[in-house]
């Protein structure tokens, strides 16, 4: 390696007197026009989400997520759902459908029953049941009963007229995962959990990253859960594929205490790979409600047309 030769030193004392005098005059003019000061204090408003940020340790942060495991079931008898399709996103268009009222029942480990109602009449518009990998939907208006799998990447059905094919992006399992923040089994081999801090214009956050070991030196990030530090509540959940694509990006807001649990009144779900956005508004959460028998059963009504939903794209996990 070649040695870098020391450069000759250059000091202020070598400056000629006229140059030194010029710099002194320039500094004097600048100070005169700046009010004889070189700095000023500017007052800014610090949002409460930053000003009131709490400190929590790693185990406490995990405990916030695991605390939701104590909820065996949930119900909301007054909710609103807004569906937005990303089908024409590349053309710069979003297709937002009319918001619908409804109600929802959830029960661990993986059951969701969602009923959407018609405006004005409040009769059933769509009945969706998801249990495990099984997905059933009843469309009363045409008495059509659809059956498919949650794990399907693309659920498709031929139009009854035979002129075209349409897909069904919505899954009950997507909603279940969003409402119940999902951790990762910490005792599973190859699972790692990291923690970092971030701050934006409104709040400060802890971010827990759940990852699994890949081919060294690579790790695959499975999920990130953002915990807002002022209230120590879950503010965001992100789910990724092994290749780093966003499967689901979920924002929680308007948290309210319901029987000791911070429950969001609003949940925003983006599913870019499935091509849709879902906005949910909940007005009356109930924790571990007494559910009637058959609450998670949905059978085809008499004379209903049974329509299988075909999987066009293979399994889509998670």
Tell me what you see in this structure.
The chain has 318 residues and is mostly beta strands. It has a single domain, classed as outer membrane lipoprotein receptor (LolB), chain A. The protein contains four helices and 19 strands. The protein has a 16-stranded mixed beta sheet that branches. A three-stranded antiparallel beta sheet has the order 9-8-19, with no helix packed on it. The longest helix has 17 residues, at 17-33.
Please write out the topology.
Blueprint: H1 17-33, H2 48-51, H3 58-66, E1 73-85, E2 95-96, E3 100-107, E4 111-117, E5 124-131, E6 134-139, E7 144-149, E8 155-158, E9 165-167, H4 172-179, E10 191-199, E11 204-213, E12 219-228, E13 233-240, E14 246-258, E15 261-271, E16 276-282, E17 285-287, E18 305-308, E19 310-311
Parallel strand pairs: 7-18
Antiparallel strand pairs: 1-2, 1-3, 1-16, 1-17, 3-4, 4-5, 5-6, 6-7, 8-9, 8-19, 10-11, 11-12, 12-13, 13-14, 14-15, 15-16
Keywords:
outer membrane lipoprotein receptor (LolB), chain A, mainly beta, 3-stranded antiparallel beta sheet, 16-stranded mixed beta sheet
* Overall pLDDT score: 85
The overall number of domains is 1
Contiguous runs where pLDDT drops below 50 for at least 5 residues: 1-15
Would you state the CATH class?
A: Mainly Beta
Please give the radius of gyration in angstroms: 28 Å
Helix content: 10-25%
How far is the first residue's CA from the last residue's CA? 53 Å
Shape: elongated
Number of helices: 4
Bin the strand percentage: 35-45%
Structural class given helices, strands, pairing? Answer: mainly beta
The main pleated sheet reads as: 16 strands, mixed
CATH architecture: Clam
Q: In total, how many beta strands?
A: 19
Tell me the CATH superfamily: Lipoprotein localisation LolA/LolB/LppX
The CATH topology label is: outer membrane lipoprotein receptor (LolB), chain A
In sequence order, what are the helices and strands, one letter per element?
A: HHHEEEEEEEEEHEEEEEEEEEE
Oligomeric state:
single chain
